[in-house]
Structures are given as structure tokens and as C-alpha cells.
Amino acid sequence: MFDTEFLDIPPLARAGGTVRLPGSKSISNRVLLLAALSEGETTVHDLLASDDTAVMLTALKRLGCSVRQDGDTAVIGGLGGRLVQRKATLFMGNAGTAMRPLTAALALLGGEFELSGVPRMHERPIGDLVDALRQLGCAIDYIGNEGFPPLRLRPGQLKLDAPIQVRGDVSSQFLTALLMALPLVASRDIQIDVVGELISRPYIEITLNLLKRFGIHVQRPAGADSWQRFTIPAGSRYQSPGEIHVEGDASSASYFIALGAIAESAAGQNSIEILGVGADSIQGDIRFVEAARLMGAQIDSSPNSLRISRGKPGQGWPLKAIDLDCNHIPDAAMTLAVMALYADGTTTLRNIASWRVKETDRIAAMACELQKLGATVEEGADYLKITPPAQRADWKTAPIHTYDDHRVAMCFSLAAFNPAQLPVRLLDPKCVAKTFPDYFEALFAVTEADTACIPVICVDGPTASGKGSLAALTAQRLGYHFLDSGALYRVSAFAATRAGVSLDDAAGVARIARALPVQFEGDRVFLADEDVSEAIRTEAGGMAASKVSAHPEVRAALLALQHGFRQLPGLVADGRDMGTIVFPDAPLKIYLTASARHRAERRHKQLISKGNSTTIVRIQQDLEARDARDMSRPVAPLKPADDARLLDNSDLSIEESADQVIGWWQGTRPF
Ligand SMILES: Nc1ncnc2c1ncn2[C@@H]1O[C@H](COP(=O)(O)OP(=O)(O)O)[C@@H](O)[C@H]1O
Ligand SMILES: Nc1ccn([C@@H]2O[C@H](COP(=O)(O)OP(=O)(O)O)[C@@H](O)[C@H]2O)c(=O)n1
């Protein structure tokens, strides 16, 4: 997951490959609650691991439910409709799929509970659900503002004789909440009447579908009223299905469907394949496929997978502008708003008023951020009209606010295919954790940028100047990859010695370097399966590295390996010749120095902390000898690149040095 302050996505050029989707959020949270309410144990496979499901799992545990987790499988011990814990304070984060149904279930089961969430949750209406529950005799108080969480629940006197009225035109989650809670008290038939037109019906279909899997058969009238009246039959009882599989998230699929529709194919690939969701999906957002087809996407579907490619020029590319009622795909339709940037005219998305009460006011958010990219946007109470930038030169870039809304962040990643080849900066990228913590990793695994567009920051300098520390911290703050090129020379020398090859045998060491089975995992370095991190980082290891690094054959042998680290979304590389030889086109090069005395003191501290005994004077002599060799060798000598910025960190901390580098980096960016 990228938990950086911002994520810069370089201009993307192509896409291709296979994506396995994380489990559906809507299904995961419903299944967890139903399993908890049921009699018996339920094994839930392919459960989504995300903020919203974590909220639900924590709440269920606090209510006395047993939960055993192993990877993406969870075993839930059902409460059998009885609460073990009748008093609890529950934090619901920003998870509507946890807040609404738990409120209903706990209010009906009786007990003393407080349910609260993040500030945005306290702005998301819940009054219609509370009104419906009060009709049933539940005792519910607003702790803060009338109509909004946080809520206090107390035991009440249930009256189940009259039909219950609930509004259906604000959020379908209110009806879902009642449908999931009422079977707990169905000693007689319970009728729910929906007032106003029911929105987001597909989500109710998911609820009804899953209720059936857990033994509850909701009755509905035939004909025109089939979405207005729901009856829970007397004697309904939750029964665990034993095992249940969660489908891939159809809303999350929308980003990769859009990707397939807008990106040229990567070499050797002709489409994006999505596994885990397909034509047999019970999720309403699967109908995003139809909308994407209308815009020109070429999509083949099988029961459990999808294959998407971009249309040929004039036949689906550029995308076709559409005018669509999006009530049936409220979440996935946001993705259409970004696809509209690649369309041949004005796209209108209608009947999307529910966007205003989601994680953020999504109509306002999308309008504001799309305009930052150069689109012309008209925003209405329940619609958006989007006209893309007229020409390549009209595209703009700016930091994109994500409003703590996972979908805004995921949508705008697709703007990186803009024809102006501008990078896209997303603020607070970790908000995707709500439903898809590894979204960006999944995106980068199936997209390609032109190599020259993938940024590299080079940090070169003498030994113990702090290059490694600075480069690693800078990489971490930017969410970039990190290359410790010195480690490659160290490992080459180590492997050569191990193989009995003399360090003076240039061809022999080069042969070993060319096929070096080296792997980096965090700050650990592996040679094949062996952790050699400590072994290579001795002073002797540094000297040996310095020796082999003077052979042109060895340097040439390691070049391709180093270039391979230049991957999305970017790289920070440390060494001696990163800016001069390996990445000469890097947009930022740092030449890092500190006085020999400072460097010797730092290295001394580092070595004694690892239990090695040595003196500062000895270290200073060693490092000056190594500097002299590195600077005077004929190939790739240590020297600042002509366009490098000099940074003397003798009196700077690692953090201050990183601040300086990131400050310079910001200066090179177009935002
Ligand atoms: N700016 C700094 N101020 C103080 N100590 C530093 C600084 N930068 C690095 N160090 C310390 O100096 C030692 C050597 O740093 P390292 O990053 O390994 O250097 P290099 O990669 O240039 O050989 C480490 O123990 C590190 O914590
Ligand atoms: N890009 C690089 C990186 C390291 N090296 C060599 O490898 C040796 C060890 O590199 P390192 O970065 O691990 O060394 P320290 O700076 O940590 O002491 C250096 O002394 C250089 O001689 C190089 O020639 N080119």
C-alpha cells in the first residue's frame, strides 16, 4: 500500500495482463454480519481485507463473536441470533456497510450500544433508518446532530404488528439494514413498505441473494410493486451455509475495465483480463460492462472473468460520449466520469444524486478535480456533464484531492493516460485502503510507461556520506523503488570469493555478476536463498566491492540489472555513477558529501553498533583510500554529474537531507 503524502503517477502508455480482484466490499461485509447472526460456523473464503471489513470484524469480535482468520479466509462462529455482549461502544470508521446494518441488528436485539465513526460518517444521513426502527419500538438517540451518527441504542419494546415504512430514495442501505435485521425477530410475518422510489436496486438484489444463502426467503409481490414491498416470513431463522465464497469486487473491476478501454496494448498482450468477477456476478456494478461497451470498450465475458481491449481507431477509440442514467451503477459510474476525458464529445451521467451522500460529495468532488485536468464540467443536483479538453495542449495537471474517498483516488489514476503525457499527482493515496489496499500495485503490474517517463532520483557520493540512508528515506516518502547499487558490487565480490574466483579476474567476476541471483527484500539482501546482508556490509566487503567495481567488464555486466530497477512509479538509486553513467537522463541528481571526519565517525558508530571493533582513525584511513580508488579509476570514476546538485550533509540529519532532496524534487515537477 502507498501510505505516502502523495503519489505521482508518471504518464502511462500501455496496458496488458491479468488482474485478480480483491473480494467485493458489499458482499464481504454483508456475509460477515449474516455469519455472525447465524446459528453455526461459517467459513468465508476470498474475504476482502480492507478498512471497511476490518471495522466490521472488530465490531463483531467486540459483540462476542468468535473470528479466526487465515489469509483471506475467515471462520465466523455465529451468535445464533443472541447477543453475548449487551453493552459496547463500537467505532464504524467510514463504513456505511457496517454502520447501517449493525445499527438495525443491535437496535432489534436490544442492549446498550454506542455507534460512532470518523467525522465524515457523522455527516452521512441515517435518520430514515432510525425513523423506521423507532416505528418498531427501538429506542435510539442521536448523540450529536439529529439525523446523523453517532447513535446511542437502548433496549426498547418491540411492536411488529404494523407494516414498517422506510424511505428508499436516499440510500438503499437503509432497506438492506432492515432486511438483514428483521429476520432476528420474525415471530410473525413482518412487512416493509418502501416509501419513494427505491434507488440502487442492485444492492438490494445482493442483500436478497445473500439472505437466501443464509436461509431467509424474503417475499415480494409480483409486478409493479415488486420493489416497494418486502415480507420476512414468520419463523425465519438464520442458518449458516457452512462455506461461502466472496466474489471479486465488481466496482473495483470498473477501473481495470476502463483501463482496458483507454490503453493501447502492451507488447505481446492484447487485452486486460480480470479474474474473480464476470457475467454470473450477483453485484449490480457488473452492469458497468454495458456502460463501458456503450463507450466503445471491447469486452468478452465468461461466468467468472472478463477480457477487455481498446477499440480500433474510429470503432471505439476515441471513446464515444454517452448520455446515461446511472442509477443502477452508482459506484462504478464514477469511473465513467474519468473515461469521459477520453471521449469524442460531452458525456452526461444522470440520476446520480446518491453520490452526494457517499464518502464525500462525489458530484462536487469529481467536478472539481476533472476541471483541474482541463475538462469542462457542468454540475447539477443529480447529474454531471463532462467535456474533455479539446486538444492535447488543453490538458493540465495539478495535485488531485482525493477527499478520503477510495473511488476518487482510483478513478483519477486513469488520467495518467492523458495524451499530453503529464504525470498525475494523487494526494493521500492510502485512502484506497477502504476497499482495495493494493490498488496501485495492481495497476502498476498491468501498465507500462515509456522508460524515459519513469522518474529516477540519483544519489551519488563517497562512502559513508549517508547515500543509502538518504536514498531509502526519499524512496519511502515518494513511494518509489530503491536501488542500492553498491550492494550489487558487494554481492558480486562476495559471490566471486565464494566461487574461488580471484577479485583481479575481471572476466571471471563479470561472468558471476552477469548471472547474479540477487534479491532485495526491504533492507535485506539475498544471494539465491541465502541472506547475505551482514556478510556483504563489512568494511572488507566494501573494499572488495571497490576492487571489483574497477573492472569495466563487471560494470557492464551489472548495467542491465540496474536498469531493471527503473519501474513504476519511480526510482531512487544510490551509488557512485548513478547520475553519470547508469541513469544519465535522471531529472534529479544529488552528489552527497560530508567531511571525511564526519563520515568516519558515522561509519564507526554503525560498525560498533553491529559489534565490530575498530577505531575512527583506521576507518578514516580506509574510507579515504576507498574514495581515492573510486575517484581515480578510469571507468565510471566517482565524480558529480555535470547537472548534479551538491549536498553537504555534515551538519544535517537524515530527515533534513531528505527534506532538501524532496524540496528540489518538487521543483522539477509540473504541479
Ligand atoms: N545526515 C546524516 N547525519 C548523521 N548520520 C547519518 C546521516 N546520514 C547517514 N548517517 C549515518 O551514517 C551511516 C552511514 O550511512 P549510509 O547511508 O550507510 O552511507 P552510505 O550509503 O553513503 O555509505 C549510517 O549509520 C547512517 O545512519
Ligand atoms: N554505483 C556504484 C556503487 C558502488 N560502487 C563500488 O562499490 C563499493 C561499495 O559501495 P557501497 O555504496 O555499498 O559503499 P558505501 O558507500 O556504503 O561504503 C564502493 O566503494 C564503490 O567502489 C561503484 O563502483 N558504483
From TrEMBL:
3-phosphoshikimate binds at K25, S26, R30, S171, S172, Q173, S200, D331, K358. It is an enzyme of class 2 (transferase). Residues 15-443 form the Enolpyruvate transferase domain. Residues 457-662 form the Cytidylate kinase domain. Its main location: cytoplasm. ATP binds at G461, P462, T463, A464, S465, G466, K467, G468, S469. Phosphoenolpyruvate binds at K25, G96, R124, Q173, R362, R407, K434. InterPro entries: Cytidylate_kin, Cytidylate_kinase_dom, Enolpyruvate_Tfrase_dom, Enolpyruvate_Tfrase_sf, EPSP_synthase, EPSP_synthase_CS, P-loop_NTPase, RNA3'P_cycl/enolpyr_Trfase_a/b. Pfam families: Cytidylate_kin, EPSP_synthase. It is found in: Cytoplasm. Transmembrane segments: none annotated. PANTHER family: AROM/DEHYDROQUINATE SYNTHASE, PENTAFUNCTIONAL AROM POLYPEPTIDE. Belongs to the cytidylate kinase family. Type 1 subfamily. Belongs to the EPSP synthase family. HAMAP family: Cytidyl_kinase_type1, EPSP_synth. This is Multifunctional fusion protein. It comes from Polaromonas jejuensis. The gene is aroA.
